[in-house]
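sanity check this fold:
=====
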Amino acid sequence: MPPTLAEILVRASSHAFYTDSTSPQAISGSETTAAPSLSSFQLLTKDRLNSTIQTLMNTDPTFLHGAYLSLSGGTRSSKNLYFVTDAVENRELRVQAGKLMNTLGVVTSTDIVANLHGVNVMYQSQSLCAALVEYAGGTHLSLTAPISDENAAVLVGLFKPTVILTTANRALQLARYVAALPASEKFEIKKLIYSSEMMTPQQEVYLGEALGVELLASLYGSAEVLQHFHHMSQFLREQILHMEGRNPVNIGNLWPTETW
């Protein structure tokens, strides 16, 4: 059974991320009986997390044992955030998320998924997304981000994937490339899963028009700990498209899941 909110707050109240202590007890959270309120905790900042993690790495030789290590993109601050989470728990979350993707039909055993996420130093977006696909029962086709649109189109024609899994910007770039191809060279993708950034409704509709996408899904936390998935109701999407005078694209429903 997952821990209750009260149990999480008890452990967090003495954890090194929320206190000034970096003792072994503070790393895992000591056991107390009184649960504090959620409002008593301050929001963690990137500077606070990076500073605490660095201190723990310098003072506790066991801190990185059994850990999943990754880092986020720089975002607007151009400063990376390092993630250190329990490897077993992180893997289990991916297992459950993969099963849920299969249940909802986002990725199933009949899907071949072309993964265009990047590979960089400590950046685990490619491997994390690969695990999701495999736990969902799909076939993982690793293309990676540096591949050119031209070469991606060649491999899509060869392996005929039914799903493309990539960042929002890369998805739009590929869609523009395909839209400019002669009719004889165009291809369609049944499903598209994008990560990293939000898309506007107009951009999502464009993917449907350029690539023939029937199901569109969005994923966040793709390099760190699979924080959550985005949910957009089909009803709302149809209303937006109706107001724009467009035909509905089956966006599909995504799900909220455990947050870290």
About this structure: The radius of gyration is 21 Å. Confidence is low (pLDDT under 50) at residues 230-244, 246-260. Residues 87-103 form the longest helix (17 residues).
